[in-house]
Amino acid sequence: MRLIKGIANFRRLYANSIDLNTKSYLSTTKRAFCRPSEYAKVVNTTITCSPFYCSNNLGSRSHSSRPEMEGIEHRVIKANGINMHVAEKGKGPVILFLHGFPELWYTWRNQITAFASLGYRALAPDLRGFGETEAPDDASTYTSLHVVGDLIALLDVVAADQDQVFVVGHDWGALIAWWLCMFRPDRVKALVNMSVAFNPRNPNMKPLEGLRALYGDDYYICRFQEPGVIEAEFREMGYERVLKGFLTYRDPCPLLIPKGKYFGQPDTPISLPSWFSEEDCKYYLSQYEKKGFTGGLNYYRNINLNWQLTAPWTGSKIKVPVKFIVGDQDLTYNAPGIKDYLHKGGLKKNVPLLEEVVVMEGVAHFLHEEKPDEVNKHIHDFFNKF
């Protein structure tokens, strides 16, 4: 039974590049106050704003006209052999924000401005395969070792003056943050993780096979495995509907996506909550129409490979100070066995420096967007101790 619960907990996982022929991108050349509907082109040493090729109705509204976007700067750097886009603002101790699927740096827009105003330097990259960061073609280059390698290389450039940084993760970003703390605890001062709790490696069961046995072939992680299949279905359904479906998902039940039947009927509009606007959706859409979903899906396609690669860390514990936050309507919180694991000492056993588990009432998966002020206070109260 313990084995089955451990595998069940794993269900919470969600869990064309810029060509730089110069080293000048390592300078402090940046862009600021660009529209959400614009992207960075690197031409020699200059980063300029240009419209996305896709049509949108954002008009002339700029970052500076939206409080949560004001003053956010952007640059592309070389990190671990790929070109990474990072959004940043502020001066002071670094907070590294790690997004999930199908999120981008943009999911942290409210946190970036808030923590910059509190005396921190907020950094939010597009992870490998997402947004304006390079997406290698080889699916096997999206493992835990590759992605943590990206982050260490990124910090070596953008936070070279700080031996340790604060980290905040959500969804896949939370899982990556656990790996970062497990592989390189020397680089992390403290961690706030959301939605995806640390689940220790089970040496006796490959995770994908366990998930398929528990939830069937229509379980979303299982459906994501075969390259090209789900991408074709997403194109047929339309990227806008897919993004709205994922980014506003509130059902605490297991996420099943049978062919042609997920996120309601294709002709039924998806209502947006107050915290996620049509303008927000258009930013995501502009990014995914350029690159597609393959980069993000490749994280799921490495679940078993990650299990193999992390064999040396079997039994390892997370030994940095941690605060964990989850919504009571989040599908991750309602996974079999997870509530007992969080509240009866399981997580504390594997994360001995865990200081607090916060369950936010009436809040679903995208808690940092749904309740940004409350989440920001939780993060600030914790980091302010260090």
Average of per-residue pLDDT values: 85
Give the total of domains: 1
* Estimated radius of gyration: 20 Å
Strand line-up of the largest beta sheet: 1-4-5-7-6-8-9-10-11
The CATH class label is: Alpha Beta
CATH level-3 fold name: Rossmann fold
Taken as a percent bin, the fraction of beta residues is: 15-25%
What order do the helices and strands follow?
HEEEEEEHEHEHEHHHHHHHEHHEHH
Regions with pLDDT < 50 over 5+ consecutive residues? 1-65
What would you call the structural class?
Answer: alpha/beta
Proportion in helices: 25-40%
Give the full name of the CATH homologous superfamily. Alpha/Beta hydrolase fold, catalytic domain
Count of distinct strands: 11
Shape: globular
Tally the helices: what do you get? 15
Which second-level CATH architecture applies?
Answer: 3-Layer(aba) Sandwich
| Gap between N and C termini | 39 Å
Domain AB hydrolase-1: 93-201
Family: Belongs to the AB hydrolase superfamily. Epoxide hydrolase family.
Keywords: Hydrolase
EC number: 3.3.2.10
Verbal overview:
- GO terms for molecular function: epoxide hydrolase activity.
- Pathway: Secondary metabolite biosynthesis; terpenoid biosynthesis.
- It is an enzyme of class 3 (hydrolase).
- Its EC number is 3.3.2.10.
- This is soluble epoxide hydrolase.
- Helix 2 (109-117) crosses helix 15, helix 3 (144-158) crosses helix 4 (172-183) and helix 8 crosses helix 9 (278-291).
- Strands 1-4-5-7-6-8-9-10-11 form a 9-stranded mixed sheet, sandwiched between helices. A two-stranded antiparallel sheet has the order 2-3.
- It has helices at residues 2-9, 109-117, 144-158, 172-183, 207-215, 220-223, 229-237, 239-247, 278-291, 294-300, 303-309, 338-343, 346-350, 367-370, 372-383, and strands spanning 31-32, 38-43, 46-51, 73-79, 82-89, 94-98, 121-125, 165-170, 188-194, 322-327, 354-360.
- The chain has a single domain (73-384), classed as Rossmann fold (3-Layer(aba) Sandwich).
- It is built from 15 helices and 11 strands.
- The longest helix is centred in the middle third of the chain and has 15 residues, at 144-158.
- It is globular, with a radius of gyration of 20 Å.
- A hairpin with a 2-residue loop joins strand 2 and strand 3 (46-51).
- The chain is α/β, with parallel strands linked by helices.
